[in-house]
Write a structure and sequence with these properties.
The structure holds 2 protein chains of 2 kinds. Chain A is mainly α. Helices cover about 70% and strands about 5% of the residues of chain A. Chain A contains 10 helices and 2 strands, in the order αααααββααααα. In chain A, α2 runs antiparallel to α6. Chain A is flat, with a radius of gyration of 24 Å. In chain B, about 50% of the residues are buried. The chains are: A mainly alpha, B mainly alpha.
Chain lengths: ~260, ~170
């Protein structure tokens, strides 16, 4: 079935400038940029942001098809935002046909809205394509610590994320096995009646939940046995190191955010 | 926070992802997603810790793991038109704190929370009136969600009587 072979994450392994950056600065920078993308409101902003985004995409060393793939689920939304903005009646008309009148102001507004969405999506795609999920989880822990979130909570969150990343494929496999097992025992998921469907669902979920709880129990015992005791004194296998290129990236994204806010 | 609840939260995030993927089409054409069922079950079982599951779930989605329905991921899903429901999951899971309330009442309040978040988000996003958003989002889905609530309650009772006793 569909659940037994799931590729997790969009991360593409490669060597490039974006890949080598510190995950912390990448996470911070790309989220700041994605946030500031929503304050775009002039042609200058659009041009400077597109130049910057294209540079980032080129530095990631990945072909355009990865980015297009991430746009695939969203192009309709972008188009819809564009069309919705197009039909406001302020400003001077530049184009009119039958009952449709498009004004310059509406055209400009719809451009701005479309580009805001586009930049937010592309920039977050750069982040997820060039950083592995586990290092993102760890980077998130460090960043939360910088922003005065309690250390224990930040650590807990990244620990839960790591566990979830590890166990999502396992649980998907388990669900697949349970579905097959119930089908071989005569469960009928194609029942036309609602009550039949619900019975089918229940027969999957109960074993799935019980097995998940058993796994959680095993895992907690394993963690205890290996001396896990929260964030205090915990070290990592991969230590993030701050390089010159990270400082450079930090300055460029601060500069571009300031530029967008001023103009 | 001890390791027992950390491992449990992590496991429920994984379950939530799997629930978002399992999608059973109904004869009327509405997809029968199990996400809402996952929300009920998570808050029934984890209580006050349930919101951590959904915080992690959303963060995982943002950093590009395809945990949302239809194997989607990325910030574009959350800022999309139905992103309000995903945020509604997080908001409604705070209700799990009230462990003394009857589970069916709790679930009903969660449905209300999820739908109001979804509707408000949709209204802001598409700039439509409340009535229009209500008509699109509520009537055809809410009765299925109520059925899911009952199913979640049945599952909660069954699992509780079988698993918890043996494990703890």
């Amino acid at each position: 079935m569909f659940l037994d072979n799931v590729a997790l994450g969009r991360y593409v392994e490669k060597r490039s400038f974006m890949h080598n950056l510190d995950p912390r600065v990448k996470l911070l920078g790309l989220f700041v940029l994605a946030g500031f993308a929503f304050s775009i409101n002039s042609v200058f902003d659009i041009i400077s942001m597109s130049v910057y985004t294209v540079i980032l995409m080129m530095l990631s060393g990945l072909s355009l098809k990865y980015y297009l793939k991430s746009m695939k689920s969203i192009w309709f939304l972008v188009l819809f935002a564009f069309v919705m903005q197009l039909f406001s009646y302020e400003g001077t008309p530049v184009f009119s046909f039958w009952f449709i009148t498009i004004t310059d102001k509406a055209l400009f507004n719809s451009m701005v809205v479309t580009f805001r969405l586009l930049f937010a999506i592309l920039i977050s795609t750069v982040l997820t394509l060039t950083t592995s999920p586990t290092s993102l989880a760890h980077a998130m822990e460090d960043i939360l610590k910088w922003f005065f979130v309690p250390k224990s909570f930040a650590h807990e969150l990244s620990m839960v994320m790591t566990i979830a990343i590890r166990f999502i494929p396992v649980m998907a496999n388990e669900a697949d096995r349970i579905i097959k097992a119930q089908m071989s025992r005569g469960a009928n998921f194609d029942d036309r009646k609602i009550s039949g469907k619900i019975k089918g669902i229940v027969s999957i979920i109960i074993p799935l939940l019980i097995s998940a709880m058993r796994r959680a129990d095993d895992l907690s015992i394993a963690m205890e046995a290996r001396g896990y005791h929260g964030w205090e004194g915990r070290t990592r296998f991969k230590v993030f190191s701050w390089k010159l290129s990270d400082t450079f990236f930090l300055f460029t994204f601060i500069a571009i955010s300031v530029l967008i806010t001023i103009y | 926070m001890n390791y027992k609840s950390i491992s449990k939260i992590g496991m429920f995030v994984a379950i939530m992802a799997v629930f978002s993927w399992i999608n059973i089409p109904l004869p009327i054409g509405i997809p029968f997603s199990m996400q809402v069922l996952g929300v009920f079950l998570t808050s029934f079982f984890l209580g006050a810790n349930a919101w951590k599951v959904f915080l992690t779930y959303l963060l995982l989605g943002i950093i590009g793991i395809p945990v949302f329905s239809g194997f989607r991921s990325g910030i574009e899903v959350i800022i999309g038109p139905t992103g309000g429901f995903l945020i509604g999951f997080l908001v409604s899971s705070f209700l799990g704190r009230f462990e003394r309330v009857h589970k069916l009442v709790l679930g009903f309040l969660q449905i209300l929370t999820i739908y109001s978040c979804g509707i408000i988000w949709f209204m802001i996003y598409k700039n439509v009136s409340f009535v229009f958003a209500f008509q699109i989002l509520v009537p055809s889905f809410i009765w299925i969600d109520s059925l899911k609530l009952i199913a979640a309650y049945v599952i909660y009772k069954a699992v509780n009587s079988r698993a918890i006793k043996r494990l703890s």
